[in-house]
Design brief:
The chain is of the alpha+beta class. The chain has five domains: 94 residues, eRF1 domain 2 (Nucleotidyltransferase, domain 5); 85 residues, OB fold (Dihydrolipoamide Acetyltransferase, E2P) (Beta Barrel), CATH 2.40.50; 86 residues, Ribosomal Protein S5, domain 2; 110 residues, 2-Layer Sandwich (Translation Initiation Factor IF3); 74 residues, 3-Layer(aba) Sandwich (Hypothetical Protein Ychn, Chain: A). The chain is globular, with a radius of gyration of 26 Å.
C-alpha cells in the first residue's frame, strides 16, 4: 500500500457487549465501526437458503436465510453463475442474461440455494443477496468455480500487474478465480501463497458444511469486526494500531503472524487506567456525529440532512466575512467545506446520492480547486464513490456505495414523538454511555452508593439488560424520572443525593 503523508491511527475499544474501532487521520476521526453483541451484520455471510417465492415480473426471488426478514435475490445476481455451471442443461442453456423474467427457469419455491449477503437489511427492506460467492482476504478475493485472475485498477504499474499475475498463475488451482486487491501491491510470493492456501481451506470447509447443513443456515460468517480490521483497515499506511483488550490483541497478533508479520511492530497493547477512547478524545469526537450542523475553522458551516431519496449537504459562510472581497471569502469557505464534507461522508457512512450545495462561484479555477479537495478527501475511502462536476446550479453530486447501515442508524432509533420524521439516540447507545460513565469515574466513585435516574422507557430496557452492569450491582440503583429525556441520565451520590453526573465525567 502506498504511504502518504497522513498520520493514521486505529484505536480499538473492546467491551463484552460492544467493540468499537476508530480510525484517526492526523488526529481527526474519519471512520467509526461498532459491533454489538445483540446486533447482526450479515454482509459477506454465506447461507444455504430456501427459495420462498419467485416473482418473474420483478425478475427476483425471495429467499429464506434465517434472518428476521426474507432476503431478496435479483436475476442479474445469479444468472451468470448458472450459465457457467449448468451450461449443459438444456432449459438453462438458452437463458438470456438481460431478460430477468426468466428467473422462473432457474429457481422454484422450496429449492435450496447457496447465496451470499451483498447488502444488509435496512429499514423495512430485507438483505440483498448474490449467487456469486466470494471469500475475501487481505490481498486476495477467492471466487469458487471461476478460473480467472483480475487485478485492482488502482495498481497502476504494468510491471507490477504482470509480476502478480505470473505468481498467481503458478500457485492457483484452475477451479478458483482470484481478484487481487490494492493492498497486495508490493507483496511477495509467500504473502500470496499463504493467503491463497488459507482462503482455499476456508472454501473447502464451507463446502463440507453445505453438504450436511439443513437450510436455512449460515455456513460462513465473514464480517466479524476482527476480520474486517485485519483485512480492510490495517495495513502499511497505518502508523499505529492500539488495542485495550489482551485477548483481542493476542488474536490480532496471531493472525498477523500468518499473513503480515511485518505489520506486528505497529500493534500496541494499551495499558493505561483511563479509558482508551478518552485518551484520544474520541468520545467527544463521536458526539459531533449527531449534530446536523458542523462548524468550519473560518466560521462557516455545513448542514447535513438525510432523506430517503438522498443526502443534502448545504454550505454557509456563517460568521465568516473574509479579509478581502466576496469571491475570496466564498472560495475559502467552499475549500474548507469540501474537505469537511469528505470527512463527514466517511465518518457517518453516508451512501447513495449525496448532493453538496456549495456557495455560488463564478471562477472556474476555484471550482476546480474545490472538486480536487473533495476528491482527495474521498480517495482514502474504502467504499466505491464518484464525484461529478459542478452542475449549472452550482451543486456537486457524489455517489457512494452503501457498505453497511449508517452510523446514525446504528446509534439512533425513530423518535416516538414525531412519527418517524426525526431520530433520537437509541436505548442501547444510552445504556453504553451510562456504563462508560461508570468506567470513566471508577476511581472517584469507589465505595460510593449511586442512584441513576433515567426515563421510564430506558429503565425498562436496562431491566432487561441487567447483566450489563453486573460488576456495579452492589454500588448502583436505577430509578425512573419521566422528566428526563430518554437519551439522558443523571447520577446522584447517596445518601445526600448530590448530583455527580458532570462532576466525574
Amino acid at each position: 500500500m502506498r504511504k502518504d503523508n497522513v498520520n493514521t491511527e486505529i484505536i480499538v475499544n473492546v467491551h463484552p457487549l460492544e467493540k468499537r474501532v476508530a480510525v484517526l487521520e492526523d488526529n481527526r476521526l474519519v471512520e467509526l465501526f461498532v459491533e454489538r453483541k445483540d446486533q447482526q451484520n450479515p454482509v459477506g455471510n454465506i447461507y444455504k437458503g430456501i427459495v420462498k417465492d419467485v416473482l418473474p415480473g420483478m425478475g427476483a426471488a425471495f429467499i429464506e436465510i434465517g434472518l428476521e426478514r426474507t432476503a431478496f435475490l435479483h436475476y442479474s445476481d445469479i444468472v451468470q453463475d448458472f450459465l457457467e455451471i449448468y451450461e449443459d442443461e438444456k432449459p438453462r442453456k438458452h437463458l438470456n442474461p438481460s431478460d430477468s423474467s426468466q428467473i422462473g427457469k432457474l429457481l422454484k419455491p422450496g429449492q435450496e440455494i447457496v447465496v451470499q449477503v451483498h447488502k444488509g437489511p435496512i429499514g423495512s427492506k430485507g438483505a440483498r443477496l448474490t449467487g456469486q460467492i466470494s471469500i475475501p482476504g487481505k490481498y486476495l478475493v477467492l471466487f469458487p468455480n471461476k478460473n480467472k485472475i483480475a487485478i485492482s485498477r488502482k495498481i497502476y504499474s504494468q510491471g507490477e500487474r504482470t509480476r502478480i499475475r505470473n505468481i498467481l498463475s503458478e500457485i492457483k488451482d484452475p477451479s478458483y478465480g482470484l481478484i487481487v486487491r490494492t493492498e497486495a501491491e508490493g507483496s511477495d510470493e509467500d504473502d500470496f501463497r499463504n493467503e491463497y492456501k488459507a482462503l482455499a481451506k476456508t472454501w473447502r470447509l464451507i463446502e463440507k458444511q453445505l453438504q450436511y447443513a439443513k437450510a436455512p443456515v449460515c455456513v460462513f460468517e465473514e464480517n466479524a469486526l476482527e476480520n474486517y480490521l485485519i483485512r480492510d483497515l490495517f495495513g502499511e499506511h497505518v502508523d499505529r494500531l492500539v488495542i485495550d483488550d489482551k485477548s483481542f490483541y493476542k488474536s490480532i497478533i496471531s493472525q498477523l503472524e500468518d499473513i503480515s508479520a511485518d505489520l506486528i511492530p505497529s500493534v500496541e497493547m494499551y495499558k493505561e487506567d483511563s479509558p482508551i477512547f478518552d485518551a484520544w478524545s474520541i468520545e467527544k469526537k463521536i458526539e459531533t456525529i449527531f449534530h446536523s450542523r458542523i462548524y468550519l475553522p473560518s466560521g462557516g458551516n455545513i448542514k447535513i440532512e438525510q432523506t430517503e431519496a438522498l443526502v443534502a449537504i448545504d454550505i454557509n459562510t456563517g460568521s465568516f466575512t473574509g479579509k478581502s472581497h466576496y469571491e475570496e471569502t466564498v472560495r475559502k469557505t467552499n475549500l474548507e467545506a469540501a474537505a469537511e464534507s469528505a470527512r463527514q461522508i466517511r465518518l457517518r457512512d453516508l451512501s447513495g446520492v449525496i448532493v453538496i450545495d456549495f456557495i455560488d462561484m463564478t471562477d472556474d479555477k476555484a471550482k476546480s480547486e474545490v472538486l480536487d479537495i473533495l476528491k482527495k478527501g474521498l480517495r482514502r475511502d474504502r467504499a466505491k464513490n464518484k464525484v461529478y462536476p459542478f452542475t449549472d446550479l452550482g451543486m456537486v453530486e457524489v455517489t457512494r456505495k452503501r457498505m453497511r447501515a449508517t452510523i446514525m442508524a446504528n446509534f439512533s432509533e425513530p423518535c416516538p414523538f414525531c412519527n418517524g420524521s426525526g431520530r433520537i439516540i437509541s436505548k442501547e447507545a444510552v445504556t453504553m454511555r451510562i456504563y462508560r460513565w461508570l468506567v470513566r469515574s471508577e476511581y472517584y466513585i469507589r465505595n460510593k452508593h449511586l442512584r441513576i435516574l433515567v426515563h421510564p422507557d430506558l429503565l425498562n430496557h436496562i431491566k432487561n439488560h441487567n447483566e450489563d452492569f453486573i460488576s456495579y450491582r452492589d454500588q448502583i440503583e436505577f430509578a425512573e424520572d419521566s422528566a428526563i429525556r430518554v437519551d439522558q441520565f443523571k447520577v446522584f451520590s447517596l445518601p445526600g443525593m448530590e448530583e455527580v453526573t458532570s462532576k466525574y465525567s
